[in-house]
Amino acid sequence: MDRIELLQSMVEKDKSNIQAWYMLGEELLQQENLREALYAFSMALAENDYTMEQNVIAYLSKVFSSLEGQSRNTDEENAYNLASVRHVEDDDQPNPDEVEKTVELTVIHGKKTDNISSLKQYQPKTVTFQDVGGLDSLKKTINMKIIKPFMDPGLFTKFRKKTGGGILLFGPPGCGKTFIAKATAGEIGANFFPVHISDILDPFFGQSERNLHDVFKTARANRPSVLFFDEVDTLGYSRSKANSDIMRPLIDSMLTEMESIDTGTDNLLIIGATNMPWDVDSAFKRPGRFDKLVFVPPPDMEARQTIFQLKLKEKPLSSDISLEILATKTEYYSGADIENVIELATENVLTEIMETNQERLIGMEDLLYAIEETIPSTLEWLQTIKNYIKYSNQTGLYKEVAKYINKVLL
Amino acid sequence: MCEEQYANDRKMIEHYFSMDRYEDARPIIENLLLSDPQDPETLYLMGVVYLSREQYTEARELVQEALRNGYNPEYAFFFIGLTYQEQKMYAEAEDAYLRSLEINPNQANVNAAYGYLMLLTGHDEKAIKLLDEAIRIDPDDSAVNDYVYRFYLAKNDGSNQAQYLQRTMEIARNEQEKLINIAVYHLVKEDTKTAEEYLRQLYLLDPTNKHVLEVLEEINRTNHMLFLPNRLIDKIGGPAVFYIGFIILVLVLTWADINSIAIVILALYLITAGYTWLAPLLYRLFVKGKI
Ligand SMILES: Nc1ncnc2c1ncn2[C@@H]1O[C@H](COP(=O)(O)OP(=O)(O)OP(=O)(O)O)[C@@H](O)[C@H]1O
Ligand SMILES: [Mg+2]
């Protein structure tokens, strides 16, 4: 099997394998199959993955600028491929052209050792609470706990209430933690810097800590900003469970960095997210660190309607679609589950069309059938946290969840 | 793929493995295989992922291929032996352990695994000899000590149980390991109340663990039910059978010092090991006990 075939079989098996889509795009582009390459890249972007978005932009601008370069017969940087662009280390005098742009794009994710850059050139599309359907009480909580103290630190100083510390969003997978973090940044008009452990971790001794430090430095240089640590349990994994001490220094650096922030004057907000709050080391949850836990529940009725509406936008729909009914029938479905329902319905209709040679639109029946064929993925998580609360003899950190569970599950 | 990228990927894999998140590492390993399908190290790592899924045949085939491509045969044969042992193919397992020990007899983990195999197959004396040898080679290896500890649990040898429990407490790598061993100790001692408290703490560290939850719930349900007298356990098939499947996967820990992949396996083993035995324990003690 050649590489393209292999990649094609991978994406067939798992449409959400954006890495594979990305590599397929690269391969196809090298074969100058522009049409299919762009399709693959757009599939790579389907998951709204920020890192991926950067990779695609960097790669494409690289390729296109080098095409341009050929005709202009210019500098040697055109020879960079993606890998070298992402890892440029001592690019002392960046040229003020496209090459510089691609280097800057990678500032957070590129494991670069040089320090601060401006992100002005690349602003991800802003989302705000308007884009987040429903979840009113969550929005209110975020407003009180995060946005107000951030926008008006003076009030809090007057009452001698500390405003430092980060927020830890937790909840079942696929329910919009990342989305809401982004929207929170949008609400306060801050730059949004998503960070994942893979952007930080480095095999060279001490380099991970330096990478982390640079992330904070970059966020500070681009204030106001929100530094978002996705899957924060992989960065601050519980010491009671870790099989080795190798992460210790990085965890310590993270704690130090966090404590050095004064939200009031720094205009820098730290948000973490996790599906597994029990795996986050307790040191991370102490005052001055991620000391505000915010539960992101499965989308409520209104949220589900919004998600259906959003995800159905591009599909050929018959006129009998009722978002309200769809939302009613999908209690406990996560955003990702809903996406899955729509995918399944689309697939079924396509199969039918291919079998009968008669084209038709996606109807309500198809969606309802797909709902019946699937189960919400959040139930397992909710059951787990329910047991957790039961055996911990106290609700403590998980008061909100306990309330939610009592309300909806009993 | 450039070397820097390769090193980064390896680091991420190691990190996921150290958290027992093998499925999270899988896409990275798949990508590495894509650019070099023959790389022995990568094949081996994929083998570990399959092992964590309890797909032993596939796991073994991957490591056999790694071996053909030059992977360190000491480790490879050990791994292969473990997969056979899990599938109860004891003769093949012994064969693999022997081949590993032939290359290097000074491997604490292989000696201990082999010793445990002997316990399973009813060769107690040989088992003791091999376990002693393992301890002699590396007295501070927590996995080796776990094996010995569980040997004495199976043999119902109270004073040695206490001594090795103490030892495992001293050298455990983390809280979770300690809690597993101390909970078992009290379970076997029929001190359900104390066991329950440790199991509860263990569960809070990993609420996704179904085995621990099962035991906890069972304890709650039967509340203070007396544990089976040893007589009955003997009837069921003797202490050795009683503990079948309960550690098996424990070893490999010592590799941590040898190379980094090690961390990988050791994590997998200790944890799954600790948990796999809880299921049969539960089954034997509660389900069969009621019949
Ligand atoms: N309330 C909502 N309004 C609009 N869209 C939503 C809402 N909740 C979730 N979504 C959609 O669901 C998708 C999944 O959300 P997101 O990736 O933020 O979840 P997550 O909780 O971060 O998941 P994971 O745990 O897998 O990281 C998003 O792309 C978003 O479009
Ligand atoms: Mg997310």
TrEMBL record, chain A:
Report the residue ranges that make up the AAA+ ATPase domain in this protein.
Answer: 163-300
SMART domains of this UniProt entry?
AAA
Keywords of the record, alphabetical order, are: ATP-binding, Coiled coil, Nucleotide-binding, TPR repeat
Q: Does the keyword ATP-binding apply?
A: yes
User: Where, in residue numbers, are the TPR repeats?
Assistant: 18-51
State any single GO MF term. Answer: ATP hydrolysis activity
Q: Which Pfam families match?
A: AAA (PF00004), AAA_lid_3 (PF17862)
Q: Is Nucleotide-binding there in the keyword field?
A: yes
Signal peptide span: none
Q: Which domain of life is it from?
A: Bacteria
Listed InterPro entries: AAA+_ATPase, AAA_ATPase_domain, AAA_lid_3, ATPase_AAA_core, ATPase_AAA_CS, P-loop_NTPase, TPR-like_helical_dom_sf, TPR_rpt
- The record lists the membrane-crossing segments as none
Assigned protein family? Belongs to the AAA ATPase family.
Q: State what protein this is by name.
A: AAA family ATPase
Which organism does this sequence originate in?
Ornithinibacillus caprae
Automatic annotation (TrEMBL), chain B:
Alphabetical list of Pfam families matching this protein:
ANAPC3, TPR_8
TPR repeat residues: 40-73, 74-107, 108-141
The beginning of the lineage is:
Bacteria, Bacillati, Bacillota, Bacilli, Bacillales
The record's section on PANTHER family has: CELL DIVISION CYCLE 16,23,27, CELL DIVISION CYCLE PROTEIN 27 HOMOLOG
User: Could you identify this protein by its name?
Assistant: Tetratricopeptide repeat protein
Q: Write down the superkingdom of origin.
A: Bacteria
Q: Which UniProt keywords apply?
A: Membrane, TPR repeat, Transmembrane, Transmembrane helix
Q: Which residues cross the membrane?
A: 236-255, 261-283
Q: Could you tell me which species this protein originates from?
A: Ornithinibacillus caprae
